[in-house]
Amino acid sequence: MAKAETAGVTRKRVYDLGLVGKLLSSSWVIFASLLLGLYIGFFHKDLAAAIGPFGTVYLALLKMCLLPFLISAITVSLVKLLKTHTAANSLRRIVAVFVGGLLLCTLYAVVFGAVEGPGRDLDESSRAVLGNMVDRSPYAVDLEMSLTGPTVEKKSESSTETVIRQLIPDNIFNALSSGDSLKVLFFAIIFGAAVGFSSRHVGDGLSATLDTIYHACQRVIQWVNYVLPFALCALVASQIAIVGLEPLVAMVRFIVSFTLAVVLLMVVCSLIIWARGRVSYFQSIMALREAVLIAIGTRSSIACIPSVIRAMEKDLGFDKTMVELVAPLSITICRFGPTLYYGVATIFVAQLYGIQLGVAEYVSIFIGSFLAGLASAGTTGILTITLLSLVFAPLGLPLEAALVLFITIDPLVDIVRTVAIVYPNCAAVAMVCGPDKEWVPPGDAKQPSGQTSSAAA
Question: Do 343 and 105 contact (CB within 8 A), yes or no?
């Protein structure tokens, strides 16, 4: 018995890498790698380009397990939820928090933009620099061609057709191979509901298999995250090297305003997480540090889901079944970051062109930002920016010139936008999920009596 327990402890140390693993996952080491990446990106662009592929390899390894993780987590959690007597109340609470949270975030974006005025009172030199950026941008050529070339008639799609194409997979294997997380999420919800309503002897076997897949994916993601400090340095360095200093200086007013809006939102969300959690305020912040740093390094909110689930369950004490269901749903669907981005960016461009905004215009921005935020589910990078058209069109704002400005700085702004997806969704998870009655704080966990003496023997 003692030998078996000793072997188990040895295997655990091999998997977790012991002290080396703790060092690599230390917040100080990860933060130092972030600063090093900033330094390399600004001052050693050749080195940044050389180490960039290492970050790409890390992303590939991380994404390798994300879709199986997503399917297994949602399916198993939904099956467990449907077998409880509180399923209806839980689903109503999820819908209320998701919709209410997005509406409040949209209102906050409009109010903040109106008060802060990110594009108000820009001097002539700043306007000239922005104009030169549009003229010299490599994207300007493509935009000019699209404006002056022959008109190509396209078959217009109704909003219903657009939703179907974006949400419902006609082939789940194609959705898996292309990494379309929104379609995979839709399939997981339907599949999980079907398994949940199946007879017990049919559903339990499949649930056990998916639960095994879920924990195996968790283990692999934990191994991959041991190289996070090195990957974070490479990813940040390559992103900063691409952006350069000139676009940052020209768009500094917008970048600072949007970052400030995100920081204030995160402060409110941190208070919600602390109030709903079972640890101190400082511990609630530190529990989510890994998820935030992964968001900074990868610019992928989906990549943060495993870390968010682990932190909300083990470090903050929320109910395991609900967290495993709500966290993937909220991070995939509730796009707080893009919603906030659309509101602030639209007001910035309107003020940049000297357009007077009244109550009607702000209402239009509110509606457009909310709809664009919903439509941004499953999009990344430039695709997210192009949805500004939903907000710009009613106001008559020039989308083409604005796209050039926002695309140029997007490698940096996308970092802030991703953090604004992940952290507010942790607050949404905290609002939906209740406490785990069997949870024990990590520092208070005690070994069962006799285990220490058996291992020593």
Answer: no
Tens-place pLDDT, residues 217-236: 878 877 887 887 888 788 87
pLDDT in tens, 305-342: 888 999 998 889 898 888 888 888 888 888 899 999 99
Domains and CATH numbers, the chain: 19-146+171-437 (1.10.3860.10)
Exposed/middle/buried for residue 3 (C-beta within 10 Å: 0-12, 13-18, 19+)? exposed
CB of 268 closer than 8 Å to CB of 300 = no
Distance CA 156, CA 153 (A): 9
DSSP string, 416-456: HHHHHHHHHHHHHHHHH--B-TT---GGG--PPTTHHHHHH
Q: Kindly tell me the sign of the dihedral angle through the C-alpha atoms of 318, 215, 298, 338.
A: negative
Which alpha helices (H) appear in 117-171, and where do they start and end? 124-136, 138-148, 159-167
Alpha carbon separation from 372 to 106, 245, 333, 386, 412 (Å, rounded)? 10, 30, 12, 10, 21
